[in-house]
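Hi support team,

I've been running sequence recovery on a batch of backbones for a student project. Most finish fine, but this one hangs at about 90% for roughly twenty minutes before it completes. I'm not sure whether the input is malformed or the queue is just slow. I've pasted the structure tokens below so you can try to reproduce it. Let me know if you need the job ID as well.

Thanks,
M.K.
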């Protein structure tokens, strides 16, 4: 059974509405004209859970992309084990860290 947040996300997708978590615990919603007052009330009632779910979905998508790039021969051609180690290490970096530089450094170390 779907959770309320999953139902809201699915309804937004069906209406062509994108929700993006932004700084300060806020949600950017567009296009606004596709959001009914009832849907907006449900979004507001579940905002913290929606933000958490949207961030988790984005993080999973970024990790998947990271692993695909790392495994690709055009980039580093890492093994699956090394790609997983690098992706996991990226998750542990503080948000303020330069993740691109860290990725290159980890990949270089893994290739030694």
């Amino acid at each position: 059974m779907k959770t309320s947040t999953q139902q809201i996300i699915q309804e937004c997708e069906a209406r062509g509405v994108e929700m993006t978590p932004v700084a300060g615990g806020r949600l950017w919603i567009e296009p606004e004209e596709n959001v009914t007052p009832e849907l907006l009330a449900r979004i507001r009632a579940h905002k913290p859970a929606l933000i958490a779910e949207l961030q988790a979905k984005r993080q999973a998508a970024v990790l998947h992309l990271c692993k695909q790039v790392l495994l690709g021969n055009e980039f580093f051609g890492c093994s699956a084990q090394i790609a997983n180690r690098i992706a996991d290490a990226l998750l542990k970096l503080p948000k303020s860290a330069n993740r691109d530089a860290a990725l290159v450094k980890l990949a270089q170390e893994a290739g030694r």
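--
Follow-up from support: It reproduced on our side and the slowdown came from queue contention, not your input. The chain has one domain: 4-110. No action needed from you.
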